[in-house]
Amino acid sequence: MEQTETTVQKQSFSLSRYIPTGVPCLVIVIALFWYVGKIMGLANMLNTLMHTAHDLLLNTVFYLMGICVLTGAVGRLFVEFGVVKLLENILRPLMRPLFNLPGVAALGATMTFLSDNPAIISLSQDRRFCRYFKKFQYISLTNFGTAFGMGLLVIVFMIGQGYFVEPVIGLFGAFCGCIVSTRLMQRFIIKAYPNYAIEDAIEKEADTIEEEVEHVETKSVFIRVLNSLLDGGRTGVDVGIAIIPGVLIISTFVMILTFGASAEGYTGAAYEGIELLPWLAGKINFIFEWLFGFSDPHLVAFPITALGAVGAALGLVPNFASQGWIDGNAIAVFTAIGMCWSGYLSTHTAMLDSLGYRELTPKAILAHTIGGIVAAFVAHMVYVLVTML
Questions:
Q1: Are the C-beta atoms of residues 153 and 335 closer than 8 Å to each other?
Q2: What sign has the CA pseudo-torsion 365, 308, 328, 284?
Q3: Does an H or E element contain 53, and which?
Q4: Rounded to a whole number, what is the distance in angstroms from the first to the last CA of the chain?
Q5: pLDDT of residue 37
Q6: Which of 173, 210, 247, 285 is most buried, most CB within 10 Å of its CB?
Q7: Burial class (CB in 10 A: 0-12, 13-18, 19+), 178
Q8: Which pLDDT score, from 0 to 100, does residue 12 have?
Q9: How confident is the model at residue 213 (pLDDT cuts 50, 70, 90)?
Q10: Is the confidence at residue 3, as pLDDT, over 60?
Q11: Angle, vertex CA 101, rays to CA 76 and CA 104, nearest 5
């Protein structure tokens, strides 16, 4: 009898520990789903969630995985044949004062510019690449690489819309935003974990590295190329799998709050939503007008959509142009914030998770949010100065 009473007391005590956090969490989740379901309809909401996640898996995650495999292979090839060391020596004077990163980090910027954010993670899985970094620098690669994500695609798209100078101004803005985001993230890391300022990203095993180099040099060039491509590609597959939870969960959530109903109304199709984020942004449009020079409140939809997917944000531009809302300033700002943010809400969690520092995700998101705003503001101001000349 006494044993039964003791068990009941333990269960009661254990249950009380979770009430302060469990009840609010349950209330928030129920309230959110009730609000969305009330607008879309319960069945449509559930179908949209499933269809959006499914479409993201097929058309976004596998696409990103393909990018990770290719960039992982190329990155490993560059490491194998000394390109990384060459970049370290050439770009060290530029990278250190601007980003507080070793010159080899420029390879990550180049590869994310040509592909997408997760390309930086493919490089970060290579021990010979990581040994140039302190731990706080290594973690900040998430912010650094994201700021250049899909840069080539964004610039080429804007040029295709008939603008040439404005995308270059946007590129400069993204560069400035990257400096702010990367350095701010580094400050957050060192403040939270002071020991990361002096700790190496990985343990430097000099003997192992020397043996590896000597062993590699005995192989033919063909075998070294083949091994590099296959080993790097295999790392890309692992990274592609690691980013699945972050992309599916966060992107689905962001998109259902960003997009509206389809032309036929709510049908349960992918990428339908309640347009809550654009509605909220419209209430403070004067801030965006002052910061970014937006001439129409609808333009706020681009940076909001770019939070989750810059590709989806680019899809808004032709419609904006047909409505007459687009001008040169908007193109410059779109390029800057599209590059700098490039869907970081949907990738930062997965990227830091794959690096093993999931607890630093809020700090990375905050730093990159500020960096993106700075990028857009700089692009706006530079555009104003250029038009005055």
A1: no
A2: negative
A3: helix 42-56
A4: 89
A5: 92
A6: 173
A7: buried
A8: 52
A9: very low
A10: no
A11: 25
